[in-house]
Specification:
Largest interface: A-B, 57 and 55 residues
CATH superfamily of the largest domain in chain A: Jelly Rolls
Distance between the termini of chain A: 28 Å
Keywords (chains A, B): DNA-binding, Transcription, Transcription regulation
Radius of gyration of chain A: 21 Å
CATH topology of the largest domain in chain A: Jelly Rolls
Protein name (chains A, B): Helix-turn-helix domain-containing protein
Shape of chain A: globular
Order of helices and strands of chain A: EHHEEEEEEEEHHHEHHEEHH
Strand content of chain A: 15-25%
Structural class of chain A: alpha+beta
Pfam families (chains A, B): cNMP_binding, HTH_Crp_2
Number of strands of chain A: 12
Organism (chains A, B): Keguizhuia sedimenti
Oligomer: homodimer
CATH class of the largest domain in chain A: Mainly Beta
Chain lengths: 283, 283
DNA sequence: CGATGTCTTGACGACCTTCAAGAGTCGTGG
DNA sequence: CCACGACTCTTGAAGGTCGTCAAGACATCG
């Protein structure tokens, strides 16, 4: 529900699209793209040989597009890790998402025909370029696909809702906890380990994404380590108590204050250990 | 940039769609709908008489759709005020938006074919029902319209980005300030006064939307009143210093900390009056 | 090897939530 | 008509969370 929560559509574990990784120029069929998108292509679409999509490689630090640049294509991540950022009116970067395999970039450029955010590669990346004209024409060519295409945008929107909700109502600890779990699930879905993985981004970037400072991110990770929810060392993380990480909350509703279980106040911040709360407080 | 920031597409001040307000059953043409959407219809579309859209009325408190309900239509607000909410896993309502004339509801239902949020009327409302099948078929029938349709979804997404950004990086005061300005601009665009207007929602709902408690909302409004930015009395508000309201910030970037003007620390919280800061602090 | 960027940790304090009490407002029913 | 309850809103007091500022440990790199 947090970051790039990929579909529940019985994802058939997309086979790696195309073999040679470092060709510099590579092409995908419509069927490949659909599978990457988590969309089940129809027979008609599967057979289509007339549309092919170009791949492009980016190295860490490179930009796929920048704010204000004329919009002409969507980008579909085939491999690698990236971030998208907005620049607020004070000139600060604000991280909006950490796209990875299967995610679509550039959607926010459709409306005003120019990208409203910036996409930066955090590692070497391989992305499929989908010219928007081609994208929209697909809906006409394969009407069965149309719903899926709108679905792609809708999915992005739902994710943003969840993000806004989390930012507004969860404590810093809870946000970091969920962030880790979301990453874990994402990695699992790609065939990597969901328990042990590397953060591809800095504390600063995580903080910006989660609406807190890098210091708070660092402190929270240290605290989680101390109480045994995870093990951290730099950017390598091992999750040890996923349940605890994902069930943290805060705010005895402010609405359920009135009615509902009038006993058991502080119990809402449900930690696994009794001691946990104190340890966290003691930071 | 905050709430329902309506397009910059030279909005031609949509004429009120259809005359009789209290008919209970009313119909709009495609051209009407396009104009409400802020989309310029092509001649072909303007002439189209074969598609008509049904209106439905709702009274304050009524729900247009609820979470989990099968998705089949988008709703376009013609008049009235509403809120959309999500229910988080603790069972709390979280306000996601305050839609009004020209806004589209239900977009988040496309992906999984069921609504992911709930829409509630805050006042009497008149909405246009757009069956999703009709919506998507329009793209095929009038290819020139297709881009606009995707644009509608893209616009929603951009708005959410701005919201997430604001939640993550602005102080409570700044968020309330911008919220008021956004409302004002919205009302102006509809032909109402942008200086004097009524809040249609409770402090609780504002707080939920802005990620703070109702008490903080109340206190902030009182403080704005005290220093002369606005005049409040219950739900009626008069804006007196829009500039001040919209330019509040916080967080000497944490990134521009390194370089940039090393002097003038606290100056970033740019208020119009020197005294303002103290007054706010004295609350 | 200094320079730069990342990460950790501590101390302090401001901002905002929490808890509580009271004033208004509105609708319903006696 | 007024009383009553249910909400909404305001304001105060207290405390916790998290941002701010600072210093130091590492790691990477030209």
């Amino acid at each position: 529900m947090f970051a790039q929560s990929r579909i529940a559509t019985s994802a058939p574990f997309n086979k790696p699209v195309a073999g040679r990784q470092r060709a510099g120029q590579l092409w995908s069929s419509l069927a490949d793209v659909c599978s990457l998108l988590g969309v089940t292509p129809t027979v008609a679409a599967t057979a289509a040989d007339d549309v092919v999509f170009q791949h492009v490689q980016f190295k860490a630090g490179q930009r796929l597009f920048t704010i204000g640049q004329p919009f002409d294509a969507l980008y579909l991540v085939n491999s690698g890790f990236l971030k998208t950022v907005m620049i607020d009116d004070a000139g600060n970067e604000q991280v909006l998402s950490f796209p990875m395999k299967g995610d679509v970039l550039g959607v926010d450029g459709i409306h005003l025909k120019q990208y409203m955010s910036e996409a930066v590669a955090l590692s070497s990346c391989d992305v499929v370029v989908i010219p928007f004209k081609v994208f929209s024409s697909l809906g006409r060519k394969y009407p069965e696909l149309e719903l899926s295409l709108y679905g792609v945008l809708s999915r992005e929107l739902t994710r943003e809702h969840a993000m806004a909700s989390a930012l507004g109502s969860l404590s810093a600890e809870a946000r970091v906890g969920r962030f880790l779990v979301a990453l874990s699930e994402r990695y699992s879905a790609m065939g990597y380990s969901g328990k042990e993985f590397n953060l591809r981004m800095t504390r600063q970037e995580i903080g910006s994404y989660l609406g807190m400072t890098l210091e708070t991110v660092s402190r929270t990770l240290s605290a989680f380590d101390r109480i045994g929810y995870i093990a951290v060392e730099g950017r390598s993380v091992t999750l040890k108590d996923m349940q605890a990480l994902k069930t943290m909350r805060r705010l005895p509703p402010s609405q359920s204050r009135s009615k509902e279980v009038p006993s058991a106040k502080k119990l809402f911040t449900n930690f696994s250990f009794e001691a946990a709360e104190d340890v966290l407080a003691a930071v």
